[in-house]
């Protein structure tokens, strides 16, 4: 099938932005990332975007595709149900060039929740023990690949520098619910102006 791909371009030198349009033949089962790589290889090598694993693991190719934030490597052309593909950079972030945004504020927000294991003062004499149920309590939130798609689709994040965004809450949940972690009190009360993380007992995933 023939698709028209409109890609947001931004030149940091001139600070000029516009959409460039590319018409390509694409198999419906190809991914948006495949088409973008073909454009870069064959039409315009200056188109700039991030990608690494190409398999939904690294989180580097989050971008707005036809109005929704998604990973370009995880969206098939046929999923879009249209032959017009419009690609923009993630919103609420400074655009560095074309589809590449400055992710520093996103990662700074994640750091605020101390997204790492905080051991108890006295470590167990042998290994940390955890039941299957205790491990299951935070299984969902171990799957975050820190792509930023959720946070940068949130209007509160766009307009409020103090709001850390949903990915930070996901990271906080991952450790607050870990029965081995002793950082609950730290994460529950630090920096109340920037983030009020409720005690683990009041959290639930829906
Ligand atoms: S929780 Fe947010 S940052 Fe993490 S993988 Fe999902 S969309 Fe990406
Ligand atoms: S390129 Fe790694 S998640 Fe898409």
Can you describe this structure in just a few lines?
With 206 residues, this protein is an alpha+beta fold. The chain has six helices and seven strands, in the order E-E-H-E-E-E-E-E-H-H-H-H-H.
* Helical content class: 10-25%
Query: Secondary-structure element sequence?
Result: EEHEEEEEHHHHH
Q: Report the sheet-strand fraction.
A: 15-25%
Question: What bound compounds does this protein have?
Answer: iron/sulfur cluster, FE2/S2 (inorganic) cluster
> What's the story with the biggest beta sheet?
5 strands, mixed
- Provide the spatial order of strands within the biggest beta sheet: 2-1-5-3-4
User: Count of DSSP helices?
Assistant: 6
Quote the distance from N terminus to C terminus: 39 Å
What shape does the CA trace take? elongated
Q: State Rg.
A: 20 Å
Let me know the number of strands.
7
Low-pLDDT parts are 189-196
User: What structural class do helix, strand and pairing data support?
Assistant: alpha+beta
The overall pLDDT average reads 90
Overview of the structural elements:
It is a single chain. This protein has 206 residues and is α+β, with helices and mostly antiparallel strands. 23% of the residues lie in helices and 18% in strands. The protein has 6 helices and 7 strands. The strands form 2 sheets. Strands 2-1-5-3-4 form a 5-stranded mixed sheet, covered by helices on one side. Strands 6-7 form a two-stranded antiparallel ribbon. A hairpin with a 2-residue loop joins strand 6 and strand 7. Residues 189-196 have low confidence and may be disordered. The structure holds iron/sulfur cluster and FE2/S2 (inorganic) cluster.
């Amino acid at each position: 099938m023939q698709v028209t791909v409109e890609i947001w371009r931004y030149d940091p030198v001139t600070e000029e932005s516009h959409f460039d349009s590319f018409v390509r033949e694409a198999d419906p089962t190809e991914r948006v990332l495949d088409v973008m790589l073909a454009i870069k290889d064959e039409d315009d090598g200056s188109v700039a975007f991030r990608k690494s694993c190409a398999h939904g693991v690294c989180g580097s190719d989050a971008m707005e595709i036809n109005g929704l934030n998604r990973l370009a490597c995880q969206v098939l052309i046929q999923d879009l149900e249209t032959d017009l593909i419009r690609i923009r950079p993630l919103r609420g972030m400074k655009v560095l060039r074309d589809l590449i945004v400055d992710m520093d504020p996103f990662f700074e927000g994640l750091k605020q929740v101390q997204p790492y294991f905080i051991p108890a003062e006295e470590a167990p004499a042998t290994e940390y023990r955890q039941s299957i149920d205790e491990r299951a309590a935070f299984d969902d939130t171990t799957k975050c690949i820190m792509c930023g798609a959720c946070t940068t689709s949130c209007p509160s994040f766009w307009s409020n520098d103090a709001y850390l965004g949903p990915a930070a809450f996901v990271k906080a949940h991952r450790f607050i619910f870990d029965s081995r972690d002793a950082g609950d009190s730290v994460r529950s009360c630090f920096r109340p102006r920037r983030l009020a993380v409720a005690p683990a007992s009041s959290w639930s995933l829906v």
